Structures are given as structure tokens and as C-alpha cells.
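Second attempt. The first submission of Adenosine 5'-phosphosulfate reductase had a stray character pasted in from the spreadsheet, which I only caught after the job came back as garbage. Lesson logged: always re-copy from the clean sequence file. Corrected sequence (252 aa) follows.
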Amino acid sequence: MTAINTIAEEGPIAEAEALNDRLAGLDLAGRLSLVSGLGGRVVFTTSLGIEDQVITAEIGTHRLPIDIATLQTGRLFAETLSLIDETESQYDIHIHRFEPEKADIDAYAAQYGLNGFYESVEARHACCGVRKLKPLARALEGAAIWVTGLRRGQSANRAETPFAEYDAERHLLKVNPLADWDLEAIKAFVSANGVPVNPLHARGYPSIGCEPCTRAIKPGEPERAGRWWWEQDETRECGLHVAEEAAAIAAQ
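This time the job returned cleanly.
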């Protein structure tokens, strides 16, 4: 990073730090209301997981001006696809679907094979890049604020998740309004408010991604242990929340 870029980013970084402090003292509804009123386009990306459903419920119930988008990767569980329609109906909202480009899928399959992600970390990252990161870039075009369902309790890799941070690769504010919520609080909210959730959660899937890359977890395993379970790296991610992966997509 050049000195000029460092100076240019001091403003957004300070803004994110100040927002982080403000969000810490609010409940979820207050956090989302504050963020939706800051100006500029706000986009919430949902994977339809239980924590994301809590955020969607608050946006829909309070009619907040926050766009909701999901990455329809082409390899999602049937239960996840059904939940998209159910959620739209219950809250009278529209969830924007962003799909991978056919040319990208074909190029991936030609190089690695359709299920080549099992063979190497490189191939798995490439698949996530095609099916998730590139569609995410389209979903966030023109956005000033990106809202996510990240929580500190999801994995050791996310234990320091702030309420707000500056995403230097995408040049926007990233807000994580559920950062301090644990899974029990999430479940209590869902039960009290009749929030529709993926039936796979009741079958041992606390974290749900693409069907070929997700398994039920075993007793005592972390929430995200069922994602890319064949890899040994305990901090494994798809790249959506990893700066280096975002930079690589931007370079393309």
C-alpha cells in the first residue's frame, strides 16, 4: 500500500471505528436502523443460515431500506432454495439472486473437473471464487455498506469480529450486527418471533453452504466444522470474508 492510499483510507477506517463504538450500545433493531440511515446503498448478503434469517426478519418486519441478496451458487441444498421463497413470502420482501457465470463454471470444470474442489485447496478456492466471490462482487456494486451475519462464536477465526470495519479491498463499510450474539440467543429470537429456518439445522447442520461441501457436525465440534471438512486448516473460509481473496477477484 502506498503512502497516498494509507492517508486516503484513514478517514474510512476512523469512520468504521466510530460506528463500531455506536453499534456496541444498541440492540439488533437499533443497529440495523442506524446503519440503514447512514446514507448510500446498504446491502445485506444472506446464506439463509439461522443468523442471517434473524437479520432478514428484522429488515422485513421494520421495512428497513436495506437490499437483501443471496449467492445462488448452483450447488445449494434443495432446503435452502425452498427457504428463499418461504422467506420472501413471509416478510413480503425480494431477495436478489446472484448466480455464477456459465463461462466461469465451464472454465473451472475444464481445468479442475466439476467436483475438483475435493482434490486440492487451490481447486476449492477457485470454485468458491467462481461461485461465490465473483457473484458477491456484482451484488455489492454501488454499495456503501455491506451487512453480514458474521458472529464471533462461529469459529476461532471469527472470534475478534467487530460490529463495523472498513473493507479496504471493496472500499465500503462492513457491518456485522450479530457479532456479539451466541447461538442460544439466535435460537431464542427465532423461536419467539416465528422466523423460518432451514430444516437442515435440526439435522446437525449449524452452518450450511453448498451441498457437496457441507456435512453435519459431530458432538463437540465447532459450528463450522462441517464446511470443507476434508481440509485440515481449522481457519478455512470460502474467501468472502478474507481480504486477499477479494483482492484477487478485483484484479480479475
